[in-house]
Amino acid sequence: MEAPFRCPNCGSEVPEGADRCPACARPLAASVGAAPDGARSDADPGVLERALGQLKQWRDAADTLGVEVPTVPRWVEARARREPSEGWSEVVRRLEESASVTIASAVARWEGTMTGRLDRLEAYHVDVQLERGQIQDALEAVEKGEAAQMVGSLRQVERLVALKERHLGQAREEIERLVALLTDMRSLGLSPPHDPARIAEQLDEELQHGRLAALKARLRSLRAEATHLLAERLPAYVTWYGTFLSAERGRGVSVDREVEELARGARALQRGHAEEAVHRLRVLAESHPAPGGPGPSTAPS
Predict the structure, then answer these.
(1) pLDDT in tens, 191-227
(2) For 25-48, how does the pLDDT look when each residue is reduced to its tens digit (9 = 90+)?
(3) What end-to-end distance do the CA atoms of the chain give, in Å?
(4) Which terminus of the chain, N or C, has less C-beta within 10 A?
(5) In this structure, is residue 271 part of a structural domain?
(6) What is the DSSP letter of 17?
(7) 3-class DSSP state for residue 170?
(8) Is 47 left (phi over 0), alpha (psi -120 to 50) or beta?
(9) What is the DSSP string of 281-293?
(10) Is 270 inside a domain boundary?
(11) 4, 48, 106, 223 from 16: Cα distances, Å
């Protein structure tokens, strides 16, 4: 459904085919600075076509930017073509100017948001010079009225920045997962291969310096080392804790839930899900600790 045509002078909605605004009573042509009633001008038909073409480009750009720009109702367009000297072409041209202002403001807001994202990437020593150059290209394209080029630059920047942010986010998540794994191992008394706090500090430093390739390689190595130790030590822990639960049951303690959760942890280890296994068992040990402390410090190491 087309948006209603509004008076360029006061903004009120104008009924189809009206020559004057029903709110301010000014002739529509005169209200936008065109020739007053009775005057004629040699309007250039090319002005109308250029304005209509540019409006279409701004509408396409508006969809990308998530904003709205004025539209020209079909009856206004038809009248502008039929009566180019009566000021209707000027109405369309002013609508095109309004659309260009809306797009320029939206791009300026986008630039501010994107610059902040680039600054955060640079804080991790990620090279974003290409993206900064493309932002400048987008701004210049708006000034020249080159909507298609502006949209192309904008989308390219969005794609590259999102990709780099995703790589950083994945690296951060991998660090957190590894540290959590080592922390869970320590909580269960399984002697992790590295101190969780120290390794977190070292990995975070690598991330801060943007050494993503080296960081990912080290994360793979550390994870393989930890999971190898878990494969060796966790079965003995499961047996040890299962014996403890059997003794609890023998004393009349209800441990059905704990036995079921212990079985889930054991199955997760068998399926190669070491992180899930050790985390389940840590939560179990904290909710139903064995004698001697909050965690099973006497478990085999």
Answers:
(1) 899 999 999 999 999 999 988 989 999 999 999 999 9
(2) 665 543 333 343 433 344 566 777
(3) 72
(4) N
(5) no
(6) T
(7) helix
(8) alpha
(9) HHHHHHHSPPTTS
(10) no
(11) 9, 19, 30, 70
